[in-house]
Design a protein that fits this description.
Elements lengths: L5 E2 L10 H10 L11 H21 L4 E5 L2 H10 L5 E4 L5 H6 L4 E2 L19 E6 L20 E5 L14 E5 L10 E5 L22 H13 L4 H17 L3 E2 L10 E5 L5 H10 L2 E2 L15 H5 L4 H4 L2 E5 L6 H19 L1
Parallel strand pairs: 1-11, 3-4, 3-5, 5-6, 6-7
Antiparallel strand pairs: 2-8, 7-8, 9-10, 10-12
Helix pairs in contact: 1-5, 2-5, 6-10
Length: 346
């Protein structure tokens, strides 16, 4: 029997919760199209609208919910169809934001990747797109301190929804597979539908395509079943941080406010590529930066914006926890990391 692998890449995707799996299987029998006018379609529509209310209630959201295929599509809808002539963002955003916000004004960040200020000029007609939690470093942006001054605030909450309280934003992107739901489903939370241009089709005319009702119900179940496991994760990360530093490693954004589930570490003298290969051979799954770009192992634009030199940034890997991560997993990873760091110094 193959040895059980150690999975520490929950920021890329985390396993579906049993409640979400059960809800998805049960929903497969509700196969009717919610847009159909017959009785079966109307029943599916009622279930869909109930799910919309349950999502909002679970997240403490008092605005509208538009179901999407994930956070990337929610970001594209929110930014590309916003009734705003000016986009401002930061250089440490996820690629999903930077791809659709080409040419946007970039706000300055400090060495921890925290946005320093927002320009006050011409706030009307401006949308500011900022991550709530950085997907590579885990740094939490103090969005309540950003001077919006009338601008629209778009928050990418892919890494924080279902874990932290949502920020006070006008639009929010979430993705189910980050909090125990299935991949391929997410939502755009929006205070006022008048903020974006409609496109026609389903989802109140703002997103075309038949709704994926089984996945939506699984996402609802994942949110409603979630537990506050972050205090336990904070203890685990403190344990890992201490071990990494004792072994000569460097913690990215060590003293910044960080979500306990995500941390990045530099191992001086050994490239992230070599680390990932060795960890994988030891049965450990971690990543280097975003899962959306780590396949090519490009130098992290996030670390670059934080002032890291390419050589140092190329030695950083990301470790991320899930609800089931425990002491033994952290200790096993730390033992392998320490041995690799020792060989790198030899």
């Amino acid at each position: 029997m193959a040895a059980k692998r150690l999975y520490l890449d929950h920021a890329a995707t985390t396993p579906m919760l049993p409640q979400a799996q059960a809800a998805m299987v049960a929903a497969l029998s509700n196969w009717a199209n919610p847009s159909s006018p017959h009785a079966d379609g109307r029943a599916a529509r009622a279930t869909l609208e109930d799910a919309r209310k349950r999502i909002a209630a679970a997240l403490g959201w008092d605005g509208h919910v538009i179901f999407t295929s994930g956070a990337s599509e929610a970001i594209a809808i929110g930014l590309l169809r916003a009734k705003a002539g000016r986009i401002m963002t930061s250089p440490v955003e996820h690629d999903a934001v930077l791809r659709v916000a080409k040419g946007a004004e970039l706000l300055a960040v400090d060495g921890d990747g925290i946005v320093q200020s927002a320009v006050r000029l011409e706030p009307v007609g401006t949308i500011i797109a900022i991550q709530h939690v950085n997907n590579e470093t885990g740094v939490i942006q103090p969005l309540d301190r950003i001077d919006r001054d009338g601008a629209i605030l778009f928050a990418d909450c892919a890494q924080s929804a279902g874990k932290l309280v949502l920020p006070d934003a006008d639009m929010i992107a979430i993705s189910a597979h980050k909090f125990g739901g299935p991949p391929g489903i997410g939502a755009l939370l929006i205070r006022d539908l008048a903020l974006i241009e409609p496109s026609g089709g389903q989802e109140q005319g703002y997103r075309a395509g038949t709704e994926n009702l089984p996945a939506i119900l699984a996402m609802v179940a994942a949110l409603e079943a979630r537990e506050d496991w972050l205090p336990r994760a904070a203890d685990l990360r403190a344990r890992l941080d201490a071990g990494i530093e004792a072994a000569g490693g460097i913690i990215v954004a060590r003293d910044a406010p960080r979500i306990p589930a995500i941390a990045s570490y530099r191992m001086p003298g050994l490239s992230a590529r070599a680390q990932l290969i060795q960890f994988d051979l030891k049965g450990i799954s971690v990543s280097a930066g975003s899962a959306c770009s780590s396949g090519s192992l490009k130098t992290s634009h996030v670390l670059g914006a934080m002032g890291w030199e390419d050589a140092a940034a190329s030695e950083v890997v990301r470790v991320s926890f899930g609800p089931q991560t425990g002491d033994s997993e952290v200790d096993s990873f730390l033992a392998v990391w320490t041995a690799m760091a020792h060989r790198a110094r030899s």
